Amino acid sequence: MRNVYKRQLEQLKVSMIEMGNLCEEAIFSASNALLSANEALADKVTHLEEEIDRMEREIENHCMKMLLHQQPVAGDFRTISSALRMISDMERIGDQAYDIAEISKVIGDSEVRTKVHIKDMTAVTIKMVTDAVESFVNQDLNLAKAVMEYDDIVDQNFTQVREELIGLIHEDGTEGSNYLDILMIAKYLERIGDHAVNIAEWVEYSITGVLPKGHVAETEE
């Protein structure tokens, strides 16, 4: 039974990596759909978002079976319960990547998309998501804390994009709706960064037992 349990824990890590990879691909594809005005890439994000939703259900079922049938000890309990919290944030990342892709279709080939530092902001958020999932798989507390610190960089990126858009509006207000769409995309990227921080905080809990602020401890069997 113990060997079966170990295999189930390993499978959980494999599934988390797979879901994380899908999130990274969704963000990357959504960003490229915007920057290259590629509607086919935007449509691809729809399928990725659906696959992320499927993975969330699959991992949730896997975790619940482990909690019900294996009666994990405290450390493993935290790992499994943290995974359940993390997949919720990962699902939201998929949703926001989808929203970015849909907005990119509206913006089309407008030159506005190349006049602000959206690409840089995307690179930071992808790194945060990648490192957050890796910190869970490897139980790497230092990496999880590094993800949390990157939140300030994403906030700075958002402020930069906002200031760039304000400058563009002063120069030429004819593309006002596109400027607002770009600002919305920057806001979605900022939220993706927030979700990556949430994931990292649950990794910290799984390692140390210290709950993120605002959360109540669950009973450990």
Short overview:
With 221 residues, the chain is an all-alpha fold.
Strand content: under 5%
Helix coverage percent of residues?
Answer: over 70%
The main pleated sheet reads as:
none
Run of helices and strands: HHHHHHH
* Helical/strand content category: mainly alpha
Indicate the mean pLDDT.
90
Oligomer: single chain
Put simply, the count of helices is 7
Provide the descriptors you would attach to this structure in a database record.
mainly alpha, 221 residues
Structure write-up:
The protein has about 220 residues and is mainly α. It has seven helices and no strands. α6 packs antiparallel against α7. The two termini are about 20 Å apart. The model has no long low-confidence stretch (mean pLDDT about 90).
List the helices and strands and how they pair.
Elements lengths: L1 H35 L2 H32 L3 H34 L10 H20 L3 H9 L1 H21 L4 H33 L13
